[in-house]
Backbone:
């Protein structure tokens, strides 16, 4: 019966959702593949439903598994809170798994976490930095507790709220003819070439949504997945770039690239995102409040 479900079985279940194969889940849990397979089989038998579709040795979460995942995540987090109940700092016990998009992860999160540790005396955090789309997918899959990203999440299971803002800028090689102008307009960017981040990136989305439709006959010269590679390509004269001022600040200061002063404002918001069914532990609530206060 379902009443005999164990935390070990739930832990195995959640690990498989994150690692797709029994072998990878077993390695993550430091268990044998046979032990993981047995725990999953017992859980599915007790529930009376398969939780995964078996596809070419991969285990893909099905509808029944999707219903169980938020409950399993909550129970495991609550069990972790019980383990830490009698520690000196029980209110902020546990590990916080934070996802951050590139600009936030590299330029804002380090200071944010340092201040959070100083205030709360909590030192167990994991950070995953990638583009906004991948970060959101990991939230949907309950692989992360919270995300700080550069664009609003539009998935129905995710809740977004603004926690800060950012200024964007256009960068060009030092020799670019527009670099001598005190101010430029969109018409000056006609027939321009651009070095852009990959699909799913907040910087790329900002360019497409806020700049591109104002520029006639622009083209993409390269698509790259790191800020540094974009700066290097712009510096080498391979196109213009659209980046956060935070991400471009050192390249601008060191005269590797030049900022083009667009007459239109270039601002975007930073968003705090969680899954609507995510169990909000005392630790997660404290971190959310801390971000909002900043």
Residues:
């Amino acid at each position: 019966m379902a009443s005999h479900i164990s935390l070990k079985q739930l832990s195995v279940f959640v690990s498989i959702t994150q690692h797709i194969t029994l072998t990878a889940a077993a390695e993550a849990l430091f268990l044998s593949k046979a032990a993981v397979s047995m725990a999953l089989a017992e859980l599915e038998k007790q529930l009376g439903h398969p939780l995964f579709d078996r596809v070419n040795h991969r285990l893909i979460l099905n509808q029944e598994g999707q219903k169980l995942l938020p409950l399993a995540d909550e129970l495991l987090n609550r069990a972790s809170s019980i383990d830490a109940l009698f520690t000196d700092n029980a209110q902020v016990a546990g590990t916080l798994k934070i996802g951050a998009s590139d600009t936030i992860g590299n330029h804002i999160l380090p200071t944010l976490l340092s201040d959070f540790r100083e205030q709360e005396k909590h030192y167990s955090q994991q950070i995953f930095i990638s583009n906004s789309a991948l970060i959101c997918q990991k939230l949907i899959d309950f692989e992360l507790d919270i995300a700080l990203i550069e664009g609003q999440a539009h998935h129905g299971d995710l809740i977004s709220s603004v926690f800060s803002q950012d200024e964007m800028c256009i960068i060009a090689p030092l020799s670019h003819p527009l670099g001598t102008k005190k101010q430029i307009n969109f018409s000056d960017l006609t027939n321009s070439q651009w070095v852009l981040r990959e699909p799913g990136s907040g910087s790329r989305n900002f360019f497409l949504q806020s700049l591109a439709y104002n520029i006639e006959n622009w083209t993409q010269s390269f698509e790259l997945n790191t800020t540094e590679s974009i700066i290097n390509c712009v510096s080498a004269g391979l196109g213009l770039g659209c980046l956060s001022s935070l991400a471009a600040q050192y390249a601008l200061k060191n005269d590797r690239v030049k900022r083009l002063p667009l007459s239109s404002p270039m601002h975007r918001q930073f968003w705090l995102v969680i899954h609507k069914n995510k169990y909000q532990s005392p630790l997660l609530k404290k971190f959310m409040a801390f971000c909002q206060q900043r």
